[in-house]
Predict the structure.
Amino acid sequence: MTSIAPEPHIRRDHRVPGAFGAVGASGARIERPRIVALGDSVTVGVGDQVLPGGNPGWAAHLATALDASHFANLATLGARARDVRDRQLAVAVTLRPSLATLVIGGNDVLRGDFDATSVGRDVGVVCDALVRIGSQVVIVLLHDPRESLPGPRVIRDVLSRRARSVNSAIIDDVGRMAGVTVVDPRGRLAADDRTLWHIDRMHPGPLGHRALARMVIGELDAVRFPLRQNIPIVPAARPGATRQAAWLIRNGLPWFAKRSRDLLPELARVCWRERHLVDSH
């Protein structure tokens, strides 16, 4: 989803220390996974908090829990599906991950030129290229923004329909692709539970990032990707209400002004068309 402002710098290419591998029940050595994360600000780690020296974001917590030998976070703020296809994919392929993660589509939903079919097609290209080099791909679908975002119901309804159409397009394109695991957070990552969400209500908060990591771990093959470590805890010192409000004013208002030139006119047109159709019936 669209980032309102960059969070603290994270290490993009991180080699995780520790033993080289583990021994499975059959006696065979299980190699530690090489993990590459692709996507937008959710995977960058916006909304998360970690201890000094840690990497923010649900994918980083996943890498820690799986004791990855190598973790690279290629996600970028504001990325759309076509950005992952055109900019992140080539780098990911050169890294030859055993596990690749993807969260994308939220920024597409928030744009005036929204096209769910194109999002699904781009995701299909990305997944196909990664599967061809032997990667297991995990793609997390979009949550329902109607349940998490504040604001007028008519706007939340439009965004909700767009998110559902993106999810449907992704499932149509990659849902049956061998080597791809689709994780649906709807109904599992409670959109109405504010403790799981960042103050902007668009990104997971610290607890939400960790819940998402646990959700993905639960969908992976436990033999190939066994859980080896605990997910990092949330730091005890968390920003208070005043600091969070200051963050929203400093970063949220500029983002809203920027989006007002793109998303809001489109939302106004969509809402007007839908209201007109209702009235005509």
Remarks:
- The beta strands are 13-14, 21-23, 29-31, 34-39, 70-73, 99-103, 136-140, 180-183.
